[in-house]
Design goal:
The complex is a heterodimer of chains A (509) and B (106). By secondary structure, chain A is mainly alpha-helical. Chain A has one domain (7-500). Helix content of chain A is 73%, strand content 3%. In chain A, the strands form 2 sheets. Chain A has a 3-stranded mixed beta sheet. In chain A, strands 3-4 form a two-stranded antiparallel ribbon. Chain A starts with 10 loop residues before the first helix and ends in a 6-residue tail after the last strand. The relative contact order of chain A is 0.11. Chain B is mostly helical and 106 residues long. Chain B is 77% helix and 0% strand. The chains are: A mainly alpha (509), B mainly alpha (106). Chains A and B meet through helix 6, helix 7 and helix 10 of A and helix 1, helix 2 and helix 3 of B.
């Protein structure tokens, strides 16, 4: 067994891990008044990691440890996307953490570790590695959700999250053990080879794959595995909620996309209808239940469940069966998923950041309390409206373009009904987004009404949040009117999926 | 009667079912965690059985056992973290029953 492993390839990951440890330990030695610099040290580390990855891995296609870790354009795309996203969440949470969280070192340190988990999920080429990376992300998130130690809502949602999260990963592990038992491998390409050689699925394999899908369904909060999401989103500190809604979903989809296109594609006929059904149920239920929410974090939670439905539509259309009966990987679908993930992340982060700023001033997350926001802070309400329009998919904003990519791919793969349903669901979502905007802009206090929390409080937007909101605002518009660069990047990332790579060592196989 | 793969699979499925029942039916968060341990050990039994009794090349065999060791390690960490969080809930509320965690609904 040769062991000339090119460990240098992992430099960006090492930088991330080192930064996490550095921020955690700096917290111990810095005096309390100086801890404000911790997030900026973290952000500098993240920038260094992205730069190293871009320079070092730009044209590299390589596998480490016999395919356990894959470095290609796809991993690189998600590395850049997820680390920048993590950095944005970090900057967005500076003001919130200063005000509401007593342990800044733990917050930022654990946030960096969770970013490491996310990027590893995108590069894993094997189920056990993917599972461990996912657990690194999940464990960090459990702690982050519980970080408001004395707030009983935060505790409650953390308890629900970890109980259901542990349950779902146990289910997924059982699935992995079944798949390994039948195929003798946990490598994606090994599973694909087995599926090609044995087109009739073994019953053990069917059970195993269904259990894996159920476990992943829990992680992305797809109906019927979504019950935990609204409760956890409501109770978690708001920046963490944003991170849960965006980061953990994007990373889980990075994993799903690679698993389904490199591992399970040969059996697409067997799972595409199942995934399409999940997608339909998810987008309908998420968007319908969002209508009756009074708490804005819960409303955004259900709306993000709806968004998962759209993304699953892309997963269901990952393969097209051509005239000869062979399965062809649909790059359009995977590009659509990636582009939509980016657009969704930018818009959702903006929305949650507005919610966090409003909460810091008023202490309320109720939609009814948003009356008067347009008068108190035109900037906040403008960004909130643009973010919600983008989530709904109105033209000129990011959501329109990204949904267009995604739904066309679905229609091309033969899921015309599902794409139609997704459009109807988007229309429904416009209703509850507009309700918030109406509350902020149109509603006037009538005689005898009490003042809302927003009207009562004095308003100013802290500088970091203000700048971050500006960046996200520009991002939403930019993706909306000029999506070509993003789409090209996503295109070259999907090219990488399913192509043959150099194997630098043959350690396991 | 000799031991064979089927026995391990039956044991594993039984443990899994008991764990599943426990997760769904138990009130106390601590007992839910115990049930999750049962689920994870069902996975381990399955892996060890498959590794020992299915005819495969040796490196594939080892892989199943490696998987089991990883799962033992990760589940230990998971339970430690979960107990810490359940303890926080108990301190703040005086109860650790899963069905009393109901301040947020729908």
């Amino acid at each position: 067994m040769s062991a000339n492993v090119n460990v240098n390839l992992l430099t960006p990951e090492f930088i991330l891990a080192g930064m996490g440890l550095l921020v955690l330990s700096l917290d111990l030695v810095l005096p309390k008044a100086r801890r404000g610099i911790l997030p900026w040290i973290g952000v500098a580390g993240l920038i260094a990691a992205v730069a190293t990855a871009l320079i070092y891995r730009w044209d590299r296609v390589e596998e480490l440890y016999g395919g356990v870790f894959i470095a290609d354009r796809y991993s690189l795309f998600f590395f850049a996307f997820l680390v920048i996203l993590g950095g944005a969440v970090m900057i967005a949470s500076v003001d919130y953490v200063k005000q509401h969280i007593k342990f800044p070192g733990e917050y930022y340190g654990i946030l960096i570790f969770s970013i490491l988990g996310m990027v590893l999920m995108a590069s894993a080429g094997e189920l056990l590695t993917a599972y461990i990376a996912m657990e690194l992300l999940s464990f960090s998130l459990y702690v982050l959700v519980a970080l408001r130690k004395y707030d009983s809502k935060s505790n409650e949602s953390a308890a629900k999250y970890i109980l259901l999260g542990a349950f779902s990963s146990a289910i997924m592990l059982y699935g992995i053990s079944m798949v390994w038992g039948v195929t003798g491998t946990t490598f994606y390409d090994g599973i694909a080879a087995h599926l090609t050689a044995n087109p009739d699925l073994d019953i053990g394999l069917i059970v195993g794959l269904s259990l894996i899908v159920a476990g992943l369904g829990f992680k992305v909060a797809a109906v019927p595995f979504h019950m935990w999401a609204p409760d956890v989103y409501e109770g978690a500190p708001t920046p963490v909620t944003a991170y849960l809604a965006i980061g953990s979903k994007a990373a889980a989809f990075a994993l799903i996309l690679r698993l389904f296109s490199e591992g399970l594609l040969p059996a697409i006929e067997d799972w595409r209808v199942l995934i399409a059904t999940l997608a339909a149920a998810t987008m309908v239920l998420g968007n319908l239940v969002a209508i009756r929410q009074e708490n804005i974090k819960r409303m955004l939670a259900y709306s993000s469940i709806g968004q998962v439905g759209y993304l699953l539509l892309g997963v269901a259309s990952l393969g097209v069966v051509d005239a000869g009966g062979a399965v062809v990987f649909s790059e359009r679908a995977s590009t659509g998923i990636m582009v939509h993930l980016v657009g969704y992340a930018v818009a959702n982060l903006a929305a949650f950041l507005v919610v966090a700023v409003v909460y810091s001033r008023t202490g309320s997350d109720q939609i009814s309390d948003y009356r008067g926001l347009a008068k108190k802070s035109p900037y906040l309400s403008l960004v909130l409206s643009v973010a919600l329009f983008s989530l709904a998919g109105l033209p000129f904003f990011a959501g329109f373009v990204t949904k267009f990519y995604l739904f066309t791919a679905g229609a091309e793969a033969g899921f015309l009904w599902l794409s139609g349903l997704a459009m109807v669901a988007s229309l429904v979502s416009l209703y509850y987004y507009l309700r918030v905007i109406q509350r902020a802009y149109v509603d006037q206090p009538s005689e005898g009404d009490e003042e809302t929390a927003v009207e009562r409080s004095t308003f100013f937007v802290p500088l970091t949040s203000w700048l971050m909101l500006g960046v996200l605002f520009v991002g939403m518009i930019l993706i909306g009117v000029w999506p070509t660069e993003l789409a090209a990047a996503a295109d070259s990332a999907s090219d990488a999926l399913g192509t043959v790579r150099d194997v630098s060592t043959a350690l396991v196989r | 009667m000799d031991l064979e793969l089927l026995h391990f699979q039956i044991l594993s499925a039984a443990l899994f079912s008991i764990g599943l029942y426990g997760v769904l039916a138990r009130r106390s968060a601590v007992l839910v965690l115990v049930s999750i341990e049962l689920l994870l050990n069902a996975v381990n039994v399955n892996l060890i059985g498959q590794a020992a009794f299915v005819d495969r090349p040796p490196d594939e065999r080892v892989f199943g056992q490696v998987l089991a060791i990883f799962i033992i390690t990760i589940s230990a960490a998971e339970i430690g973290l979960a107990m810490a969080i359940v303890l926080r809930v108990f301190r703040n509320r005086g109860t650790a029953n899963a069905d009393e965690l109901d301040t947020m609904k729908w």
